[in-house]
Amino acid sequence: MASTLRHGEFVGSLDCGTTSTRFMIFDRYANVIASHQIEFPQYYPQPGWHEHDAEQIMESCDACIDQACVELEKLGWTKQSVKVIGITNQRETTVAWSRKTGAPVSRAIVWDDIRVKNLVTQFENQAKTQGVQYEGKVHKGEDGLVALRKLTGLPISTYFSALKIRWMIDHWPDVKSAYDADDLLFGTVESWITYRLSGGAHGGVHVSDVTNASRTLLLNLRSLQWDPVLLEFFGLKASILPKLASSSEVYAHIAYGALKGVPIAGLAGDQQAALVGNKCLRQGEAKCTYGTGAFLLFCTGEDVVESKAGLLSTVAYQNGPNGKPVYCLEGSIGVAGSAIKWLRDSMFMVQSAADVNTLAAKVPDTGGLYFVTAFGGLFAPYWDPSATGMIIGMSSYTTPSHVARATLEANAFMTRAVAEAMKLDSGVDLPQMKVDGGMTNGDMVMQVLADLGGCEIVRPEMRESTALGSALLAGSAVRLFGWDIARPETLHEVNTAGSTSFKPTTTKEYRDKKWAGWQRAVERCRGWAASDD
Ligand SMILES: Nc1ncnc2c1ncn2[C@@H]1O[C@H](COP(=O)(O)OP(=O)(O)O)[C@@H](O)[C@H]1O
Ligand SMILES: O=P(O)(O)OC[C@H](O)CO
């Protein structure tokens, strides 16, 4: 019987976040035609440790692609209508697998895992005593740390992949023997998924894009090559590393399943993809995404801006192998939606993440409570692995509503901290901020952000900016719909849906008083974790 399905032109996006995978199929206007989402298991084997099973991530990707295609066919479209796909991912999470079998040799270590805390001190000392080679000279002492920052755009932190790979090789015998036998392949999540989708041990492509690579501490930020100085510094062999590529080009074709033969043509870390999805492609444009963590990215154009205020300099995107890289400043907040998940799953204060909004709205303020959600130390702009989570200001007056409200306020204070750092580095005060991500579904979350940050918060109707960004990168690589991210005017039809604005309802005096309280609270939680904790 002849198929009655229609043939169209769509672009797919596989968005593999920290807690879930989704595959979305977009049309030329960024309407979501079909999608499927699956949460995958989180493993917390010890305090501060956070692992994923890379095989389970892969299973969730396969199932999301297949199910979204089933959905597409139910709506009357052929699956061949999906012309190209992009992949976007939780960044820094470190996967180790076997070249011979294509299977993981260990659990993956997730970006917010802090088991490498002591390695931070060890490598900082190494940079100071042995020094770091930069511009033909060995820099020692504090200059050694500065040289590392200039090379990578990053501080030495538990956050980035090099320390996680080092730890895996030093502590997990299976990883060590694969490494010694030259059988080990390392990759961040986009690299792992691309490898497996393109055939795994049977011809799979081992590749990473420069946005993800810029989060490893191994990439030279300006040459966009793996840097031998950095590999030697962390004691790692180049043979484990993926080939480097831009964020928008054909890397490989899918080897099996519903979309067999479809090109994979966009790769980008989820935060950079959200920047592209918000069409913040030019210098001075910014967005903040609130998912598991929160990440404020400010596009600095073709210039690397070196932060003096605790932000990261990182690659925003590279449009094709010959495209000039575009950079950004990033304020990374380690804990955002994950604090709400903690209220739900560990404290049983709410039944769903959305309920936190109603619980917090029951009280007009926190009753003097501050909750520093430093579950994995403090990220930007503090970079302090010795800080721990802390609730301070409790009394017999305190109720779960005050804790819920303090959790939302923590999110707003952390945002203010990175926005102030951004202003110091760029000279730009953000009067308005574009936001997206799962946590922005909460109206109370949004209003607290506006009230404590003192700036207008603009929430687009279409909040799947991360998935959309990777779709734009993939579509642009093959000029689907005439898209070309180098020419933003070619994207004018994309995502023209409206937005909701949340304006501050507080006085400056109130905001500054609360901010002073937050700063005192942060000082109290710093240095709490001892090195042998
Ligand atoms: N209505 C809501 N209000 C507040 N937080 C929410 C709401 N809905 C989801 N979240 C939070 O958003 C996060 C999920 O966002 P998402 O962008 O899917 O994250 P990720 O990509 O990191 O997996 C969860 O941590 C959850 O707690
Ligand atoms: O899972 P998300 O969306 O919070 O993103 C995680 C980041 O990529 C970590 O750097």
Automatic annotation (TrEMBL):
MF annotations from Gene Ontology: ATP binding; glycerol kinase activity
Ranges of residues in domain Carbohydrate kinase FGGY N-terminal: 12-277
EC number from the UniProt entry: 2.7.1.30
InterPro entries referenced in this protein's UniProt entry, alphabetically: ATPase_NBD (IPR043129), Carb_kinase_FGGY (IPR000577), Carb_kinase_FGGY_CS (IPR018483), FGGY_C (IPR018485), FGGY_N (IPR018484), GK1-3_metazoan-type (IPR042018), Glycerol_kin (IPR005999)
Keywords: ATP-binding, Glycerol metabolism, Kinase, Nucleotide-binding, Transferase
Residue ranges of the TM segments: none
Superkingdom per UniProt: Eukaryota
UniProt keyword Transferase present: yes
Metabolic or biological pathway: Polyol metabolism; glycerol degradation via glycerol kinase pathway; sn-glycerol 3-phosphate from glycerol: step 1/1
Pfam families: FGGY_C, FGGY_N
GO cellular component: mitochondrion
Gene3D superfamilies (alphabetical): 3.30.420.40
Alphabetical list of SUPFAM superfamilies matching this protein: Actin-like ATPase domain
Domain (Carbohydrate kinase FGGY C-terminal) ranges: 286-477
Gene Ontology biological process: glycerol metabolic process; glycerol-3-phosphate biosynthetic process; triglyceride metabolic process
Family statement: Belongs to the FGGY kinase family.
Protein name: glycerol kinase
Organism: Phanerochaete sordida
